[in-house]
Design a protein that fits this description.
Number of strands: 0
Distance between the termini: 43 Å
Structural class: mainly alpha
Order of helices and strands: HHHHH
Helix content: 55-70%
Strand content: under 5%
Length: 85
């Protein structure tokens, strides 16, 4: 099941951004998924699904948005290493 959302934009937005409606939607989906991932609301897999890209493409997009693909605190990371050792 999918949901369609409509937004109204000023007419000059797409020319200012030098983009097409399709690319604008793609970039908005990526940006929203990256932000939600950064906030801890979605996983990498769910973010990729929301953005309609592969997981690797999503990880690459995170870098472009300045979001670390690793969302663990140093304490959580240390606990992971100790659990595996």
């Amino acid at each position: 099941m999918s949901l369609q959302v409509t937004i109204n934009l000023p007419e000059d937005v797409l020319p200012i951004l030098r983009t097409t409606p399709e690319n604008f939607v793609h970039q908005m989906r990526l940006a929203a998924a990256a932000k939600w991932y950064e906030m801890g609301k979605v996983s990498q897999g769910k973010g990729a699904e929301l953005a309609e890209v592969s997981r690797q493409e999503f990880i690459d997009a995170l870098s472009a948005f300045g979001v670390s693909p690793i969302q663990m605190t140093p304490e959580q990371l240390e606990a992971e290493f100790q659990a595996d050792g």
